[in-house]
Write a structure and sequence with these properties.
Elements (H helix, E strand, L loop, with lengths): L2 H4 L19 H22 L1 E2 L2 E2 L2 H8 L1 H34 L2 H12 L6 H12 L4 H8 L13 H24 L5 H8 L4 H29 L3 H6 L7 H10 L4 H31 L1
Antiparallel strand pairs: 1-2
Helix pairs in contact: 2-13, 3-4, 3-13, 4-5, 4-8, 4-10, 8-10, 9-10, 10-13, 12-13
Keywords: Cell membrane, Membrane, Transmembrane, Transmembrane helix, Transport
InterPro entries: MetI-like, MetI-like_sf
Subcellular location: Cell membrane
C-alpha cells in the first residue's frame, strides 16, 4: 500500500467568521469616511483641477517656485528643531515621571497634563506677553543687570522655537513615558553589576528599550509641528511662512483653491511619510 493511500485525509481549514464585535467599529468608520475621507478626496481633486479641467499647475508652482520650496524647507526646519528640542527635554522628563512615587508623580503628571487643557492660542499669546520688550523676561534681566536696555525677543526664530517646543512637549513625554513605565528598573543595575559603565548602560540597555516610545513621540511631534499654524502666526507673523500659512492665504485671501490644495497635498505626503516610516520602524524594533 502506498504512502499516499496511508496518509490521513486533509481536514479542511475552518472558515473564518466575522467577529460580531467588529461591527461596533462600523459607526466610527462611517463617521470618519464622511468627515475625513470624503473631504480629503475632494481636496486632492481640487489640487489637480484647474480652470480648464485637469491640471498639475498647482504642483508645478508649489514644487518649482523657489518661494514655495523655501516655505516647505522652513516648515521642515521648524518641525525638526521642535522635535529635537522636545526630545531633549522630554526624554529625561519621561523617566522622571515614570520613576517618581506618590505625591511627586501626581505633581509631575499635573505639570504634563495641565498644559493640554489650555488652548494653543492662549499659550502662544502668553509667550508673546513674556517675550515682549516690556515683558517679564526683559524686566528680570534688566533688574539683574544682565542687559542695559530691553532686547527684542518677540518675532524672532528663537521665540518661535521656544513656543513650539512648549506647545508640543507633552506629546513627546507621554509616548516615552508609556514605554519607560513598562521597563524593569533593575536592568541597568544588573548591567552595572557586570561592570558596565553608565554610558554603556544607557546606550546598550536603556536607550534600545525606550526606542519604541521615542519613535512614537518623534513621529507625533514632527507631524504636528510641521503643520503648525497658530503659533508661527502669533509669534512670527508673515516673517516666517509655513505650509499651513500659505494654505490659509491661498484659500482665504487669494481664493486660489488649486494652490492651497496642492500645498495641502504636499503637507499630507510629508505627514504620511513620517507616520508610515515610524510604523515600519516600530515593527522592526518590536521584532528585535
Amino acid at each position: 500500500m502506498s504512502a499516499t493511500a496511508l496518509a490521513a485525509p486533509a481536514t479542511p481549514a475552518p472558515a473564518r467568521r466575522l467577529d460580531p464585535l467588529a461591527l461596533l467599529a462600523l459607526p466610527g468608520l462611517a463617521f470618519l469616511g464622511v468627515v475625513f475621507l470624503l473631504p480629503l478626496l475632494l481636496l486632492l481633486w481640487s489640487s489637480i483641477r484647474g480652470a480648464e479641467g485637469f491640471s498639475l499647475q498647482g504642483y508645478v508652482r508649489v514644487l518649482g517656485d523657489p518661494y514655495y520650496v523655501g516655505v516647505i524647507g522652513a516648515s521642515l526646519q521648524l518641525g525638526l528643531v521642535t522635535t529635537l528640542g522636545a526630545l531633549l527635554l522630554g526624554y529625561p522628563a519621561a523617566f522622571a515621571l515614570a520613576r517618581a512615587k506618590g505625591g511627586w508623580q501626581v505633581l509631575l503628571f499635573a505639570l504634563v497634563f495641565l498644559p493640554l487643557t489650555v488652548s494653543i492660542i492662549v499659550k502662544s499669546f502668553g509667550w508673546g506677553i513674556v517675550l515682549r520688550r516690556d515683558g517679564i523676561l526683559n524686566w528680570a534681566m534688566l533688574n539683574l543687570g544682565l542687559i542695559e536696555r530691553p532686547v527684542r525677543m518677540i518675532f524672532t526664530e528663537g521665540a518661535l522655537y521656544a513656543g513650539m517646543i512648549n506647545v508640543f512637549l507633552p506629546f513627546m513625554v507621554l509616548p516615552i513615558y508609556s514605554v519607560v513605565r513598562m521597563m524593569d528598573p533593575r536592568l541597568p543595575d544588573a548591567a552595572a553589576t557586570l561592570g558596565a559603565s553608565p554610558w554603556f548602560r544607557f546606550t546598550r540597555v536603556t536607550l534600545p528599550l525606550s526606542l519604541p516610545g521615542v519613535v512614537a513621540g518623534v513621529s507625533l511631534v514632527f507631524s504636528l509641528a510641521v503643520a503648525a499654524y497658530v503659533t508661527p502666526s502669533l509669534l512670527m507673523g508673515d516673517r516666517y511662512m509655513t505650509m499651513s500659512m500659505v494654505m490659509a492665504k491661498a484659500f482665504l485671501n487669494l481664493r486660489d483653491w488649486q494652490l492651497g490644495a496642492a500645498m495641502a497635498a504636499v503637507l499630507l505626503a510629508v505627514a504620511a511619510f513620517v507616520v508610515v516610516g515610524a510604523s515600519v520602524l516600530q515593527r522592526r524594533l518590536g521584532g528585535r
